[in-house]
Amino acid sequence: MNQEQGVRTTGDVAAVRDALAVLEAVESESGAIDRVRVLEELKAAATAAQARAVIALDRLRNESEAARGAESTARCRGLGAEIGLARRESPARGARFLGLARSLDRDLPRTFAALTAGAVSEEKAHVLHRETSWLRGEKRRQVDELMSDRFEQTGVRRLGAEARAHAQRLDQDAAVEHLERTVKERRVSVRPTPGGMAYLTALLPMPQAVAVYATLQKSAAALVGTGEAGGRTVAQRAADLLVEHVTGQTTAEAVPVEVHLVMTDAALVGEGEEPAWIPGHGPVPAGTARRMLRDSEAGVFLRRLFTTPDSGRLVGMDSRRREFTGLLRRMVMLRDGVCRSPFCDAPIRHVDHAQPHRDGGVTDFTNASGLCAACNYAKENPGWTHDATPDVLAVRTPTGHEYTVDTPPVMITHADVVAPLQSAGTGARADPSRAGPSPAGPAGERLDDDRSPPGRILSMAEHLLRSRLVEFPVAS
Question: Cβ distance 70 to 52 under 8 Å?
């Protein structure tokens, strides 16, 4: 590809990508900074090119579905999920990018031009889109014009605040209606972080959020001031008060451990070092998990999960029911941890049939998938198929692209480090962060709480486990 040819096709773009891998090393500090800057601009220009491709896809899909007689309200369903798969991210992020592309094309021409030129990042473009999304088209274009000289000079938070101020000034009635609508979006979410910690986030109306925070800080400061905080700081005591008030526990540490803590028998009753796992959230050091069980002031219950001796896969269960309920549902959720779709880490909301029940799909462990609501709805659209075994999920989209992902093990063990899981298809790879034995034993094999599967020999650790049942009753 020479300079006269330029970058015209997808193949040319791939050539640029490959060329970046063999860039000559920089030889000066200033040269390194210059390269960082131009590559950042390249990222923004690539985002703009990606947006143009999404705009074209949106138009082509809309036209093809209109030609098939689809109602306008039923067109392009699942398109955000397809874009998410292509970008190797969740359906929610794919839908968000689709909304950004449409907004740039229709209502934010200055932002689009700046993104193409590398003068504004994708993050800033998203902020401008989000802060004006509730305005009518002509008002959005006014905000876009007013903000055009602020792109390069302003940080993300300030840019968003200025755009929001312009939007509210231009249409106060719509701004009030928008604020009233957003109250319906209040929610609580949890996101794991390094060090066995997690962010518990509450999206609340501003007055409520400020009131909750002020109350926690005031109460914590009072306890520290009177010497009742036990050596904890105001921030630590405020966090503990939040847990105690929400759960009703006498102390923040009294967590009921039927919160699904998965660990090996050796780690539980011996000195095993394999980390335990909280499904959907990640690993906990074995010593910490034992301490959680030993020191908890709340009830602790054990449920044995038998695995096949050779692969560590969970033993399968089956059912003649239409819906996944009871222990079968719980087993699928323990196996998948988070949404099973490639690149999606959203919490599981639905346990559903990979092959639909209406097409003869059976309600058993081999045909089950734990999915978030968005992924489950997306697979019901025309042209989508899910082909699943307990080991692998293959997702095919209306364009014929296929994305395959291995089912991660229930927990990551030494064997997984020595012989890591291999990718099972195009695009997606096994993700150790999604929890780790790949699921599923023999189809139709049932699991009873108090006996081993056929052919399974109790290990010494399991024998010891039974001796501990006096301390920890087995959950029913």
Answer: no
Q: How far is CA 333 from the centre of its chain?
A: 15
390: left (phi over 0), alpha (psi -120 to 50) or beta: alpha
pLDDT digits (tens, 9 = 90+) for 423-444: 444 444 444 333 333 333 333 3
CA distance 267 to 435: 17
Question: What CA–CA distance (Å, rounded) separates 266 from 172?
Answer: 63
HSE value, Cβ hemisphere, 13 Å, CA-based, for 272? 17
Closest CA to 108 of 80, 142, 83: 142
Give the helix ranges, DSSP H, for 340-459: 373-378, 414-418
**Which phi and psi angles does 396 have, rounded to 5°?**
-115, 130
Q: Match 């150790």 to its residue by tokens.
A: 432
> Each residue of 50-77: pLDDT tens digit?
999 999 999 999 999 999 998 988 889 9
φ, ψ of residue 30 in degrees (nearest 5): -65, -35
Q: Max alpha carbon distance in the chain (Å)?
A: 79
* Token output for 40: 């950042």
Total-model pTM: 0.67
What's the burial of 204, exposed, middle or buried (CB within 10 Å: 0-12/13-18/19+)? middle
Q: For 382-391, write each residue's pLDDT tens digit.
A: 899 999 888 8
DSSP string, 111-173: HHHHHHTTSS-HHHHHHHHHHHTTS-HHHHHHHHHHHTTTTTTS-HHHHHHHHHHHHHHH-HH
Other C-beta atoms lying within 10 Å of the C-beta of residue 211? 12
